[in-house]
Structure formats: C-alpha cells, structure tokens
Specification:
The protein is an alpha+beta fold. It has 30 helices and 20 strands. Strands 1, 2, 3, 4, 5 and 6 form a 6-stranded antiparallel beta sheet that branches. Strands 9-10-8-11 form a 4-stranded antiparallel beta sheet, with helices on both faces. The protein has a 4-stranded antiparallel beta sheet with strand order 14-13-16-17, sandwiched between helices.
Length: 919
Amino acid sequence: MSLALHRLGHLVGRHRLLVIIGWLVIILALLGASRLAGTAYADNFSVPGTESEVGQTVLEERFGSSAAGASAQLLFRTDSGSIEDAEATAVIEQTLAEIETIPGVANVSGMDRLQIDENGDAALATVQFEDEKPSDEALDAVHEAAIVDDAGVTSTIGGSAYGEGNPEMSHLSEVIGIAVALLVLFVTFGSFLAAGMPILAAIAGVGATISILALASHVADISTATPSFSTMLGLAVAIDYSLFILSRHRQELAAGLEPREAMSRALGTAGGAVVFAGLTVIVSLLGLSVVGIPVLTVMAFGGSLAVATAVLVALTLLPALALLAGARLTPRARRARRRSASPAPGGRPGFSSRWVRIVTRVPALTIVLVIVGVGALALPATQMALALPDASTKPVGTDSRDHFDAVAETFGPGWNAPLLVTVDILESTNPVETMDDLSTAISEIPGVAAVPVSSPNAGADTGLLRVIPEGGQNDPATTELVHELRDRAPDLEEQYGVSDIRVTGTTAINIDTSERLAAALLPFALTVAGLSIVLLMIVFRSIWVPIKATVGFLLSVGAAFGAIVAVFQWGWFPAILGDSLPGPLVSFLPILVMGVLFGLAMDYEMFLVSRMREDYSHTRDARGSVMSGFRHSAPVVTAAALIMIAVFVAFIPAGSATIKPIAFGLAVGVFVDAFLVRMTLVPAVMTLLGDRAWWLPAWLERILPAVDIEGDALARQVALDESGRSALAISAHDLVVDPGGAPLTLAIGAGEVASIPVPDGIDEMRLAHVLAGRTRPVSGILAVNGQVLPERAETVRRATAIVTADDVSPSDGTVADYIAATLTTVGGRRPECAARFERAISLAPAVDSPITHFELSARRQLAAAVALACGARIVFLPGCDDRGLAETLRVAGATVVMFTAAPAALTASSPLASIGAPA
C-alpha cells in the first residue's frame, strides 16, 4: 500500500492544479444540484419482518393505503364551560369539515367519534392522511385549518404526520467546531497557512457528502439525523486525517526533501495509516447493516460516505493544496528544534517525555488506576434504557412538543402512543359483534386505558382496534403491554373464532425496533472486538498488542456509554441536557457510537504503537522504543484528539435530541480513548510486557497476510533506490528461506548468469519460489528487479519464471503447436500475441519437431522460450546445470539464476558471501 500511495503522491504533485480544479467542479456541481432539488429527509423506524411491520402491510392491503398512512391528532380545548356546548361544537365541526376537504386527507373523525376527556373541557379528533409521507402542502394546509382560537376554543395538532419534516439545518455547530480546530492546528503548526489546509479539505469533503445525501433523500428514506451525524463525523475525521498527513509532510520538508517527494513519502507513511483508519470506520459502520434496521443502515451509510470522502480529500485535495504552497510549509528551524522528539543535551524534557516517564515508572500501578477509574465511569452503562424518539424529545416550544404535552396532560400519556391491532375475522358470522367482544376483552387487559376504535373493514374480513395504553411510548409498561397482547393472541383467537391477531402501529414499530437493536448490541460488540484483534494482529504482527488495544477500546466504549446514561438518562449536569428531558436513550445510539469509536480508537492505536514498533525493530530496546515512539507520536495524536473532541462538543448545544447524546458520547469516548487509554494505559502495558509485546507464533506469522500500513515497504524501497541496488536483478540481505536455514546475501546484476550455492537442508525449488515472489521468506530483506518483497510480489511474479522440464509434457504436437496453444491462455491484442509468438519461436529448439522426441534439456528450453516471450526478465533453473541453455537465455536478455550445492563446511549459522559473479 505504501508504494502505491507514494506513486499517488507524485501523480498528484504533477497534476496538482488539475486535482484542485476537479474537486472544485465536483463540489460545485453537487451543491448546485442539491440546492435545486431540495431535501426530502424522513424518519422511517420500520423493521422488516417484525409483527408490527407485517401488521402495517395488512392495514394497507385490507383497509386501503390510507389506513397505513400517517395520522395526526387534533386537540380542542375550551377555557370555560363544556367542549360540548353549542358554540364550541360549531367551531369544532366547522374545523373538521374544512380539514376533510383538503387534498391528501383520507378521513377525519366525525363529531360522534370525538374523544371527550373526563372534565368535559377537551376533545380529541383524528386526521388520517392518504400517504405514509404526506406532502408539505397537505401538512401545511391541515395545520393552518386546524389551529383555531374562536369562541373560547383553542387547538393544537401533532401526531406521527408532524413528527418528521426537514428542519432548517443550523451551521452554528460546524462553525464552532471549525474555529476550535483552526486554533488547535495553528498551535500545532505555528502557521495559519498550514492550519487552514486541513480545514479547507474538511469543508470540501463535508460539502460533497451533504450534497450527495440531500440528492439521495429523494430516492431513499434518509433520516433527519443522518445529515448532522455525517457532518459531525466527516468534519472530525477529515481534519484529523489531513492533520496526520500534513504533519508528516512538514517533517519530511524539515529533513531537506523537496516538496513533491516529501508529500509522496508522507502519503506512503501517514497516508497508509489514514487509509487503514478510514477503512476500519467504514467497515464497522457498514457492518451495522446486518442488524436489518433501515434507519440504522441509512445513518451508517451516511457516516461511511463522510469517512470515505474524508480519506479521499486527505489523499488528493490536501496534497494538491500543500504542494501549491511548496517549500513555504517547511517548519522554521527554531520551531523544528522545539518540536524535536528528543530534548537537547542538558535541556528540560518536553511534556510528552515527562508524561511517558510518569506512567511507565510503575506500570502495574498505572494499569490498575486506569482500569478502575474508567471502569467506574462505565458503571452507569449497566442501567441503560433504550427507546426511539417521539414528540417528547422535540425542543420545548415547538408545535409537536406543545401538542404532545397538552394531550398527555389532558387525556394521559397513552393517547400519544396508540397501538393498532389487526385481526382476521373472515370466519366470523357477525363481524361487528365479534369486534365488540374483542374490544371488551382487550380493554380489560391490565395496562390498557381505552379501546376507542373497534370496527371491521368494508369487506368484513379484517378488523381494526385502536388500543390506548396507560403509559407513553417510552414507558416500560407500554412495552410490557405489547408483549402481553401478543402472548394473549392465541387464546383470544381461539375464544372468539378469529385468527392472525397482530399488534402494529407507530408505537409497536418503535418498540420492535428498540428490542431488535438491543438484541444486536452484544453480537455486534463481539464482532467488532474480534475484528479489532484480527486487524491489529495483521498490522503489528503481535498477539498482545491487539488484545491490549481491544480491551482499551472496550473500556473507552463503556466510559462513553456510562457518561451518556448519567447525563441523558439520569439527568446529571442539566446544562448539557439543555431543553431536553432525561429519559431512555435513542435505540441505535449504542451500536452507532460503538462503530464510530472503533475506527477512531484504531486510528490512535496505529499512530502511537506503529512508531513504537518501528523504533523497536531498529533498537530491540522494548522500554526505549515505548519512550521514543511516544515522544514522536503524542503531540500529533493530542492535536487530533482535541480537534475531534471540539467538533463533537460543538454539536451538543444546537443538536437535536438524537444527535446530542451521540455527540456527547463520542466526545467522552475520544477523550477517554486518546488520553487515558492510548496515552496512559498503552505505554504502561507495553513497558510491562517488554519484548513479549512483539511476540507472534511463527506459524501465525506465516499465514497472516502482509499489509504495509506503516510505510515499511516504502522505507526499504527508498533505501534500495538510494543505495543504487535497485539496478540489480536480485538483491537480498540476511534472507532466511526456512527456519534455521543459512542467511543469504545476494547481489545479482541484470543480464548475468549466476549460480547460488544452496546449503544442505534447503530445497532448491523452495528457494526459487522465494526469489520469484511466489513464497514469503522467514526473514530478511529481498528485492527483485528493483521491487521490494513481499509487497510487490505480483509485479515480481510477472517478471520472473521458474523453469523446469516438467513444465512441458511430452506430446505428438510440434513446438509451434505447443507455443500457439500456450500463448492463447495469455490473451491480449492481436499484434501483441503475434509478437509473443515470434519471440517464442525464435528462442525455441527445433520448432517443427514433435515434442515427444525432446530430451529434458530441450523441453526446459521450450518452457523458458515461452516464459521470455510472455515478459519474464529473470529465469530460475532449479535442478539444472545446463550452461549452454543459461548462456542462450542470457544472450536473449534474461538474467539466469542456477543453483549448486554449497560447500560442506558451510553451516546454517554462517552467512554466504555476496553472490554476483557470473557462473
């Protein structure tokens, strides 16, 4: 990966103006299209496959689409007298009649079906819309007609139809977050020019993301919380990712590299970690789709889109902007000395050095204190209660909230959370009587406040009951009532001769969704923890580092959950709550916060521990590598965490009831993870483990894929190029093919015929496979044809061939027939195929002879001819001492490698001399 990102850096450097213009055109086009199309955000909390969702389908099929459409409640109240007085009745009747004429309204409660409260001073009517998502015109018209203040009668309107909408997006949170981020970046870089570049890149990425979401809202259900969540996450990660890359770019500039090469190396090192961090966030978010809840899937998609865009701008737009500034981004010499990882001799150590010494002085004590402290912060999470938002979570003073409070005060909270019960009455001989009997039976169930509606449909095959619970949607008693109704359904079906009793409606859908999410939390947590261990094991080639990182991640998540419960469920720190009331947390919050924190935690783990690993690989000093790695990485990780926290905190004051706890939880989670786990717990654990921190069983090392995240391949490639050894056909240093085998040091020039002495116990074919990039060695450094291995194994495999006589089976066909048949499997355009055929013919023996007459040497030559024709530049001849064939291949332009037995005195512990002389 690092080599590909290094090439990307040079590509962006050559076309930096084109990259900037391309991004500008894309963003302007997206912004223009989204402004013209507008937005159509809507909350859809349905859960496919649940009983409530099946019930909604039954409603639509048996009662018409309007039955499953949105509904609204209209509350009339009188200041004095009875709501049933003549004047009040006239106002209500006129209002309902006017609403019924509005296009998009299916039906309105008649005067005889109004719900009158016990005091007789309030009445509740129902407005049923034709569509599940009424048009803005219909909603506005109904709202205007419904609000009255006449003859002492006042009214409010609310309900599911008015629970959505597209609120005006306030950008105050983004402005505050950007301002704080700019301040942190200026302190970090000491330059407004450098500080402004991550901000510009982040704004571009967020603008593109929100425009895409706005356009997508016209073709998919995108919740109203998705844009804010995506903006918050996209802004934070885009600034952080850009910070990591720009910081490394300035380090390379300070080391004396010219700007394009400095940026290329920055992308090859820090860019790899950015890609890894971004992919972990995206994978963890997209993994939420397996839960099967559309609203969560959509939010995960929005967040993934924001993170993917952030990675793209950090890898392309930011380098283009930075390269426009050229050498002006080079840190001043004085500042560079101040930010040096190591203090000057006799100087006072920096804060990072002092901190890591403190936390590693008695590592066991540090570990205990962190685990106990963070564990205590996580304790409230054990009392977490989940629900989905209703009008009670709307800000005080909004129409929806005022109506909700008025209905709860006048009729009771259950009237804001009606349940719908559908029942198949096809076998009933008296549908009306059957429905009345069912209504009576259900009204006697504990927890039921009323059953105001009980009627069959026009076809008399399905009945509908409207059940009012005593509690609101988020009341545990309402959840218990839903389960009680479903548990009693078989008995009711048998008693009244009906079938398929289903509990549905918005309240039941929300309860089903909450339970599905709660049930998915533990499996998702285990999946994320397992993914964390596997990913970090691949990156760090260690057992203990992934386990330590995963435990730290779980501590951070627990602390975030505990803080959210304490503030938003228990009501601690009312200043953070604002105008929200404490209560159950939004159901998808735990999984969403866990998914995001997973990626961010891996981000900080990567940047801290990768430098420790790099230093350990050079010094083999476990404690020293923790110290030096921390000093190098802590300042940038600190800045990144502060920016992330600032962006999340900025979304708390102006955020919706859904976004507030998510933003707060992420801010707390990032703080705990960055400063308590990664910068305190991690150094202590690494110091306590010592050399054991980097232990990995040999068998596991062999099967794990090689993923170059830290730029190790780039470092080896740069060292190879600078040493001049990239011109060699094969360059190896301390290459060990088999465990316990002799280390090989090779230097074979291009166009040579070389013979490698192979010690006893090492198979020639195994060695050939290693040198040809087919198999990974045990250890050592290897480059073939100027490409480092194993990262460039695919390129090396295309340029090498292992030739044996067995490659060509004896047959009655001629050499030309064999070549033609073999080359057809390669493919390509006709001129290329013809050129390959001619080259193979020119190198092959006796082209008109049948292959069955060939000796082993001739068959080996034929296989080599086909390999060279297909582009091989290095040919390995295991088990062959045919010097004539080797010379023929050398004359044809190939580098030829043969193998001979090593001297008997050579032992496995004695390195071979450098090989380079022609055989």
